[in-house]
Amino acid sequence: VSITMMALRGAMCRGGTNVARSAVNRLLPPPHCYHQPPYCCRRIHATTYAYTSADENTSPRQDKSDQRKRLDVAIVGAPNAGKSQLLNSLMGMKVAAVSRKRHTTRTGIFGARTFDDTQIVFIDTPGYLHHEMSIKEGVRKLLGEASSEIEASDYVVMVVDAAKKLDEDMKRTLITLIFLALRSRGRNEDGVTITSNSLNKFAVVLNKVDLVSPKQKLLLVVSDVSAMAESCIRRLLKQRRSPTKTRLESLVNDVLENYAAESGFDGIDEEDLEDFAAIVPDFLFTSAITKDDEGVDDVLNMLLDKATPSNEWIIDPETGTAMSPLEQIEEILREKIYRCLHREVPHAVQQQNRLLRLDEKSVDGKGAKEGSGDILRIRQDLVVRTKSHQRLVMGSGGKTLERIRSTAIKDLETAFQCKVDLTLSVRVTKSDKEIPLDSESTGGITYTPN
């Protein structure tokens, strides 16, 4: 029986069958959150928020600025594990596109929640596949992006689809992610890598637990993943004691072949027993697709407990995201494109912005609330390579394009807290070059006061 399983079973015996609760983490009191949904009039600047006692208007706790903390968290997992949905739940707002299609997330997406004197920075990474699968699906570039995000993070949350069978390809992917998480270096502040003294660098979140029945099946998933994690840790400690150059692929194959036969403290040097127990990951359970986001608070509280002192916050606590308004619009539209189109078509669609302007208007000329009567005008081209793709994006009588537009408007109005005038068109290009989202600006909004 693995160390993780002993802790898990004890927690479940004390807490009954409610496996959506954290099995091995203590819970913190609910913190006060300074995060607010973004409003389109707030420009997001490429700056850091290094609060000092002299800056009395920005720091939530001016008298305790030396206690400010931060944790950069990479959210990783196989495609369709629910990473983006979990990020949106952790953020309390939609920042990442969510669909049932693989590889919806194409780049790292940044978001942050600020609680009192602590900022948790989330990086949603593209779905990770082991080397052979990434070549087969043509997403090696995405694999590299996910790897670099893990390396530069303080902590890794590995999301596992609890309702999906752990076949050999999935196991190989998870083992690779575990090794990458164990090798993470930490965030960079002012050119200096901030390395935590903690050996525990990742947690496993079993997502979609509401789709698993009976719930006792979750114990089998935990048993398998924890055995893989502990096998990876054994090899990490062995390499630390006797450094040798070993290819990651060889380590992954070794774990895949032998983890099932290993248990407990097998193969652990007596001097490494304490470190082994400290590195074993935490397991948490979420069902992020439910309305109450069950288990998400457990994840947040666990992350808050692992934050370390910081000299700078990289995201404005009032906006919660480093994405420009145009990037937020692109992400919302892309989600609708992926949901309304099928097969390879959504992956072939590129977006190009033609107009992004906020017409500021007041209902009665004075005394109106901020944003009342404002209209955000957006004009975008959906660019495809072939006439057949153009017809599919348009749909019969333009119905598919209208469905993309109408569903996007609802999310855009929620995100920017104003009326949205969205116009979409579909055009064909024969160029193989990457099309810039907006070649003439950095994604800011042009204002036209009335």
Q: Would you summarize the structure shown here?
A:
With 450 residues, the chain is an alpha/beta fold. 34% of the residues lie in helices and 18% in strands.
Summarize the structure in words.
This protein is of the alpha/beta class and 450 residues long. The protein is 34% helix and 18% strand. The protein has 13 helices and 13 strands. The protein has helices spanning 3-15, 83-91, 131-136, 140-151, 168-182, 217-241, 248-258, 273-279, 296-305, 325-340, 345-348, 387-394, 399-416; strands spanning 69-77, 109-115, 118-124, 155-161, 188-189, 192-193, 202-207, 282-285, 308-309, 350-360, 375-384, 419-428, 446-449. The strands form three sheets. Strands 1, 2, 3, 4, 7, 8 and 9 form a seven-stranded mixed sheet that branches. Helix 5 crosses helix 6 (217-241). The longest helix has 25 residues, at 217-241. The protein is globular and about 70 Å long.
First and last CA, distance: 70 Å
Helix tally equals 13
Mean pLDDT: 75
Largest β sheet strand count, sense and barrel closure: 7 strands, mixed
Instruction: Characterize the overall form.
Output: globular
The percentage helix is 25-40%
Taken in chain order, the helices and strands follow as HEHEEHHEHEEEHHHEHEHHEEHHEE
| Strand-pairing-aware structural class | alpha/beta
Spans of at least 5 consecutive residues with low confidence: 9-65, 98-107, 133-142, 439-444
Percent strand: 15-25%
The total of beta strands comes to 13
C-alpha-based Rg, rounded: 23 Å
